[in-house]
Amino acid sequence: MQTRCSLSLIALAFLLTSAPAFAGTVEVEGEGTPDLYVVKVHADWCSSCKALVPILDEVRETMSAEPVLFLTLDVTDEDRTGQARLLAAALGIEQHLKDNNKTGLVLIINPADKALLETLTRENTADEMIGKIEGHVAATADEDMDM
């Protein structure tokens, strides 16, 4: 009887220690509503897309405190393109994906009215992109104040 009890306790201890554990919690502050979408149309095989990686990394890092949602619509293959279409549809920007059906583009979109504000490419430097995005964020803020 003692052996069964010991085995049961060992099994119970194993179950309790192997149960999934949460890593922690994160406080999320702010409103969570972006002033702009900055959308990269990407494919793994696209040389322009590869050239955009370090540029957009710098832009994201510099603008991390701004109310800008950076996202990628990946059209590398059929499965990823399907997911990109679903994401674009969920955001209400699917027409821009259809109209700008080229890879290596960065689309700046106003989330409020879904208007395409600007199209950027690898020819734009990080500083140029930052300036253009900041200008659109400021214009969006001015529009909000006028309402």
What does the model show?
This protein has helices at residues 2-18, 47-62, 78-91, 94-99, 126-146, and strands at 36-42, 68-74, 105-109, 116-120. The protein has 147 residues and is α+β, with helices and mostly antiparallel strands. It has a single domain (36-146), classed as Glutaredoxin. Strand 1, helix 2 (47-62) and strand 2 (68-74) form a beta-alpha-beta unit. The model has no long low-confidence stretch (mean pLDDT 86). It has a four-stranded mixed beta sheet.
Category by helix and strand content: alpha+beta
- Second-tier CATH architecture: 3-Layer(aba) Sandwich
Helix content: 40-55%
Shape: globular
Mean pLDDT: 86
What are the segments in which pLDDT stays under 50 over at least 5 consecutive residues? none
Largest sheet: 4 strands, mixed
Total beta strand runs:
4
Oligomer: single chain
How many structural domains?
Answer: 1
Task: Spell out the key features of this protein.
Glutaredoxin; 4 strands
Summarize this, please?
The chain has 147 residues and is of the alpha+beta class. It is 50% helix and 16% strand.
Summarize the SSE layout with pairings.
Layout: H1 2-18, E1 36-42, H2 47-62, E2 68-74, H3 78-91, H4 94-99, E3 105-109, E4 116-120, H5 126-146
Parallel strand pairs: 1-2
Antiparallel strand pairs: 1-3, 3-4
